[in-house]
Amino acid sequence: VQLQASGGGLQQAGGSLRLSCVASERTSWHGIGWFRQAPGKEREFVATITWGDGITFYTNSVKGRFTVSRDVAKNTVYLQMNSLKSEDTAVYYCAASRFFGILNYYWSDRYNAWGQGTQVTVSS
């Protein structure tokens, strides 16, 4: 599968951005996750969604602010980011997983294919 992430940019704190991740195919994949990596920090899990049931998981720091959704007709997953904070500044990556469960949805090694990343910068 090939993944194309887009939608990043510069936004003021409190503002919103919507990221998109277009997958070349989805039939053999369980779901799409979003991860981010800030300068000098390790990559961290942000959110994920299953293609079939649309089940979602989020990291605590984005709950209530970010929403992950999917459009199966377009093979696209979105990450709507509201109430942005300076600490949300990072390169955001989408990644495809063949399977994850409730205990390991946030493990990066559950994700087998990665997109190229899109930069999100939040100014305070």
Please give a quick description of this structure.
With 124 residues, the protein is mainly β. It has no helices and 11 strands. The strands form 2 sheets. Strands 2, 4, 5, 6, 9, 10 and 11 form a 7-stranded mixed β-sheet that branches. Strands 1-3-8-7 form a 4-stranded antiparallel β-sheet, with no helix packed on it.
By DSSP, the count of extended strands is: 11
Largest sheet: 7 strands, mixed
What global shape is seen?
Answer: globular
> How big a fraction of the residues is strand?
over 45%
Q: In percent, how helical is the residue content?
A: under 10%
What is the straight-line distance between the termini? 37 Å
Structural class given helices, strands, pairing? mainly beta
Q: Taking all residues together, what is the mean pLDDT?
A: 97
Q: Count helical runs.
A: 0
What is the string of SSEs from the N terminus onward? EEEEEEEEEEE
Tell me the radius of gyration: 13 Å
Key terms:
globular, 124 residues, 50% strand, mainly beta
Task: Give a written overview of the molecule.
- The chain contains no helices and eleven strands.
- With 124 residues, it is an all-beta fold.
- A hairpin with a 5-residue loop joins strand 5 and strand 6.
- The relative contact order is 0.32.
Secondary structure: elements and pairs:
Blueprint: E1 3-6, E2 9-12, E3 17-23, E4 31-37, E5 44-50, E6 56-58, E7 66-71, E8 76-81, E9 90-97, E10 111-114, E11 118-123
Parallel strand pairs: 2-11
Antiparallel strand pairs: 1-3, 3-8, 4-5, 4-9, 5-6, 7-8, 9-10, 9-11
